[in-house]
């Protein structure tokens, strides 16, 4: 089964908590602070692997989570970092942020990597908070949460040459004759539901990947029929072989078919329509084909395209089309300066996080302080520890929270709340 699109949830590991601990040494107050830092959470990393050719596994498993960092240890021991989660995907996979539609990475080379979710930083142990006036800190930081997001994986087939044309024009038969592929062949409106790939051997050391791409109909650029599924796969090909039923056996007019398919390509992507295109006038073994061929060839050549008479059923003309496609492919690769051994790349994505500005409001007589910065620090406060609470007060004072509260008319004994932390205000 060929699966070319999937939506999955990824979660990076949370950072480990820092701890409160003390050394046991003579003449050192309370043994001296020695709480270690928590380990960093693991990242979620996608890696392009040429051994894979489908996204099928992601249809059955949709949630992926990297390992959390471990808590810090005594004697300033750093907690172990969480292991990164490596997710292998086929070469040609595009990763998108499901919420924004933003393209995170286009993994078009073997070994390409994309770090899409970053592990949380480990919390600092109490050893970090020792000062000349606070020699016995009894508080530490909790680890940060790792990134989490839904991503869309979209596979674009990495074929060198693509077969395009209306359904039932003989693309699958052409592929079976040209390569070692064994596509299903049947008389359905959409014979090929998924791209079929095959290797075309021209001569020793000369070959290319040929793809029979899902049938396209008028209106596909708006999503009709297999629409966008077809167009997504044809995007990466460098040369197109446009197969037309020149016999008109399906009751359609060959020149009209050719024009409509190209109109759909142009609507979807002008660049797509500019790709080199060879026209294979197929089904020449049928009686009506000979009568139509010369007229068809004349009309298509006026538009600037090369036309070859072909019978996929008998193999006539197939080799000539393939050799010409290979010549054009080499020209395209030379023009684009494509390096087959191009070095893999690393993409790094940072999802934009909502940062709440500092705000203070009065609600039912309670002063509620909100904001990303202040809430982050509030999570680490030990209310019954004098040093911890004093550190928190100094932080709020530097942030201007107390000045703002005074402006709002706060009185001694009024309640201030930050997250689930409540305390009475006194000057």
Automatic annotation (TrEMBL):
<dbReference type="Pfam" id="PF09269">
    <property type="entry name" value="DUF1967"/>
</dbReference>
<feature type="domain" description="Obg">
    <location>
        <begin position="1"/>
        <end position="158"/>
    </location>
</feature>
<keyword id="KW-0460">Magnesium</keyword>
<dbReference type="InterPro" id="IPR027417">
    <property type="entry name" value="P-loop_NTPase"/>
</dbReference>
<feature type="binding site">
    <location>
        <begin position="282"/>
        <end position="285"/>
    </location>
    <ligand>
        <name>GTP</name>
    </ligand>
</feature>
<keyword id="KW-0547">Nucleotide-binding</keyword>
<feature type="binding site">
    <location>
        <begin position="165"/>
        <end position="172"/>
    </location>
    <ligand>
        <name>GTP</name>
    </ligand>
</feature>
<keyword id="KW-0378">Hydrolase</keyword>
<keyword id="KW-0963">Cytoplasm</keyword>
<dbReference type="Pfam" id="PF01926">
    <property type="entry name" value="MMR_HSR1"/>
</dbReference>
<feature type="domain" description="OCT">
    <location>
        <begin position="347"/>
        <end position="427"/>
    </location>
</feature>
<dbReference type="InterPro" id="IPR006074">
    <property type="entry name" value="GTP1-OBG_CS"/>
</dbReference>
<protein>
    <recommendedName>
        <fullName>GTPase Obg</fullName>
        <ecNumber>3.6.5.-</ecNumber>
    </recommendedName>
</protein>
<dbReference type="InterPro" id="IPR045086">
    <property type="entry name" value="OBG_GTPase"/>
</dbReference>
<comment type="similarity">
    <text>Belongs to the TRAFAC class OBG-HflX-like GTPase superfamily. OBG GTPase family.</text>
</comment>
<dbReference type="GO" id="GO:0000287">
    <property type="term" value="F:magnesium ion binding"/>
</dbReference>
<dbReference type="GO" id="GO:0003924">
    <property type="term" value="F:GTPase activity"/>
</dbReference>
<dbReference type="GO" id="GO:0005525">
    <property type="term" value="F:GTP binding"/>
</dbReference>
<dbReference type="InterPro" id="IPR015349">
    <property type="entry name" value="OCT_dom"/>
</dbReference>
<comment type="function">
    <text>An essential GTPase which binds GTP, GDP and possibly (p)ppGpp with moderate affinity, with high nucleotide exchange rates and a fairly low GTP hydrolysis rate. Plays a role in control of the cell cycle, stress response, ribosome biogenesis and in those bacteria that undergo differentiation, in morphogenesis control.</text>
</comment>
<keyword id="KW-0342">GTP-binding</keyword>
<dbReference type="InterPro" id="IPR006073">
    <property type="entry name" value="GTP-bd"/>
</dbReference>
<feature type="binding site">
    <location>
        <begin position="212"/>
        <end position="215"/>
    </location>
    <ligand>
        <name>GTP</name>
    </ligand>
</feature>
<dbReference type="InterPro" id="IPR031167">
    <property type="entry name" value="G_OBG"/>
</dbReference>
<comment type="subunit">
    <text>Monomer.</text>
</comment>
<dbReference type="InterPro" id="IPR036726">
    <property type="entry name" value="GTP1_OBG_dom_sf"/>
</dbReference>
<dbReference type="InterPro" id="IPR036346">
    <property type="entry name" value="GTP-bd_prot_GTP1/OBG_C_sf"/>
</dbReference>
<dbReference type="GO" id="GO:0005737">
    <property type="term" value="C:cytoplasm"/>
</dbReference>
<dbReference type="Pfam" id="PF01018">
    <property type="entry name" value="GTP1_OBG"/>
</dbReference>
<feature type="binding site">
    <location>
        <begin position="311"/>
        <end position="313"/>
    </location>
    <ligand>
        <name>GTP</name>
    </ligand>
</feature>
<feature type="binding site">
    <location>
        <position position="192"/>
    </location>
    <ligand>
        <name>Mg(2+)</name>
    </ligand>
</feature>
<dbReference type="InterPro" id="IPR006169">
    <property type="entry name" value="GTP1_OBG_dom"/>
</dbReference>
<feature type="binding site">
    <location>
        <begin position="190"/>
        <end position="194"/>
    </location>
    <ligand>
        <name>GTP</name>
    </ligand>
</feature>
<keyword id="KW-0479">Metal-binding</keyword>
<feature type="binding site">
    <location>
        <position position="172"/>
    </location>
    <ligand>
        <name>Mg(2+)</name>
    </ligand>
</feature>
<dbReference type="InterPro" id="IPR014100">
    <property type="entry name" value="GTP-bd_Obg/CgtA"/>
</dbReference>
<dbReference type="GO" id="GO:0042254">
    <property type="term" value="P:ribosome biogenesis"/>
</dbReference>
<feature type="domain" description="OBG-type G">
    <location>
        <begin position="159"/>
        <end position="330"/>
    </location>
</feature>
